[in-house]
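Page 37, top half.
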Amino acid sequence: MQAKEIKPGAILNYESAPVLIEKVNVQSPSARGAATLYKFRGRNLVTRQKVDFVLKGTDSLPQADFHKRAVSFMYSDNDQVHFLDQTDFNQYSLSREDVAEDLPYVTESLEGMMALIYNDQCVGIQLPTSVELRITQCDPAVRGNSATGRTKPVTLETGLVVQVPEYLEQDEVIKIDTRTGEFLSRA
């Protein structure tokens, strides 16, 4: 895949390891005849380390030899988080620290979650871009504050704390962006 075609979310083979691209920055040339540079930030799916690299627009990287499987959250213990494959009912386990960033968005009823399988081993999970979570604790809504842009912190069912508009109340279901952790809308 050429550098100019690579988008966030793509999984490529870089230095013989699968890398999930998280961020792409395009640097236009300042001189005539200079090449456009593409700066990538990704995460090595095997070692979980961040990887930064730069490519010219015509350089290319091969796509990683892996596949995605639809999974659902089963349970977690002190060390590991367990997922169930929705197709063949295999169980995948990942260490708690490998999925620590994703856990605040995971519920038992979450749909659209994918396991990333590389060499027949689960190396990570991929969340949908937005999830619906219930507000479990918040300050009471103040009447007449719907027109202002002020926000308040709320605690969601998974323990995640986010900023939402003041008019929202406890037990409402809201949509959260899993990439940024920001409030999107009511569900």
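Page 37, bottom half:
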Amino acid sequence: MRSSNPGDKKAGLGLWSAAWLGVLFLNLPILFVFLYAFNIEDSSYTFPPPGYTFRWIGMTFGRVDFWNALWLSVRVALMATFVALILGTLAAAAMYRFRFFGKEGITLLILLPIALPGIVTGISLRAAFDLSNIPFTYWTIALGHATFCIVVVYNNAIARLRRSSPALIEASMDLGADGFQTFRHVILPNLATALLAGGMLAFALSFDEIIVTTFTAGPQKTLPIWIFAELARPNNRPVTNVAAMIVILITLVPIISAYYLTRDTQDSAGSGK
């Protein structure tokens, strides 16, 4: 039933305007990255640009170091996502299924990496790797990224488990299924979209991470570090804009996909269905 209060329309308009102002504030700088990726001049940031060209895209794609950095970022993100899916799912299942002393403290420790500044996590990991005499390789980057990717998967999985009916698991056990069969045929299908969404978000977070990578990469360069290094060369500004545009586009796809995968479930939960 629509409210007859005349103030509702003004409140709706005010919220609508505030929402769009927030969207513009957050995304307008990103649009300028796209704009200056096609700037005809190599070091000018005048607005509007004096002209447009596609040559910077060809120049970027023609650089071997760009492709090496891009491929390293993709490999690190895939491995970090894989580790996060396994550990995050197991942690969510354990925290949902069992009650034990210190459960709240362990939950805090699981969630802590996403709350800490990246520089704190990076310094801690570097110190741990140094003390363990572990050389900085692809694996140290992937493990560093997995520390905060686990949180994303864990949050998605635990939220879905809390919305699932415990009666399904009990019914599976009553029908003679063992733990693995229950997990495979009951729990995993219920978690499928949540895990897929969590994995996509984890990939996006890992792909554009720079601070943790800086402390765990050694001489290797992921794409964000490559962009940061190229910023020191003024004549390469359009190239860095093209690379930044590619990072935005690659991370945008899993974020939007994760939103649409979980939207129906969130709407159903919110409506009490």
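Margin note: DSSP finds eleven helices and no strands in the chain.
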